Amino acid sequence: MEIEIKEIQASETWNLRHTVMWPAMPFDYVKLEEDKHGMHLGLFKQEDLVTVVSLFFKGDEVQFRKLATKVSEQGKGYGTLILEHIVLICKEKAVKKLWCNARVDKTGYYKKFGLKETENRYTKGGIDFVILERLF
């Protein structure tokens, strides 16, 4: 099976963001003001876009946001492949800190990639979040 991770346009991430993360919200809810400044990655299986994520660089830090995998393709390792790819980008660009706002119920997954919980927590749209970070 052919898997490819490549840079895509922000607009190519919106459909997966919406259907996976916030299906009950209006479509525009998943568009970020910062999208125009981000690096957006897509993982393709054959020609099918199955996972998306957006990276936002600020100095020697990078935040990843809106990691989403098609529901029918979840549990097959695609999120892991794209997160491993993000770690490589961080090392290539000499990033000192990688971080994200994670849904509290997903923190165990992110900890497998060396991300650790901070004390920063908040609630958005009725969902609890915690900021996780990894220092390099």
Strand order of the largest sheet: 1-2-3-4-5-7-6
Order of helices and strands: EHEEEHEHEE
Quote the distance from N terminus to C terminus.
Answer: 32 Å
Which structural category do the helix and sheet elements fall into?
A: alpha+beta
- Name the average pLDDT: 95
What global shape is seen?
Answer: globular
Radius of gyration: 14 Å
Number of helices: 3
Q: Roughly what percent helix?
A: 10-25%
Strand content: 35-45%
DSSP strand tally = 7
How many strands, what sense, and barrel or not for the largest sheet? 7 strands, mixed
Low-confidence stretches: none
Concise overview:
The protein has helices spanning 14-21, 78-92, 107-111; strands spanning 3-8, 39-45, 48-58, 61-69, 97-103, 116-124, 127-135. A 7-stranded mixed β-sheet has the order 1-2-3-4-5-7-6.
Keywords:
136 residues, alpha+beta, 7-stranded mixed sheet
Tell me about this structure.
It is a single chain. This protein has a 7-stranded mixed β-sheet with strand order 1-2-3-4-5-7-6. The protein is globular. It is 21% helix and 43% strand. The protein is of the alpha+beta class and 136 residues long. The protein is built from 3 helices and 7 strands.
Q: Any chance you could write out the topology, listing elements then pairs?
A:
Layout: E1 3-8, H1 14-21, E2 39-45, E3 48-58, E4 61-69, H2 78-92, E5 97-103, H3 107-111, E6 116-124, E7 127-135
Parallel strand pairs: 4-5
Antiparallel strand pairs: 1-2, 2-3, 3-4, 5-7, 6-7
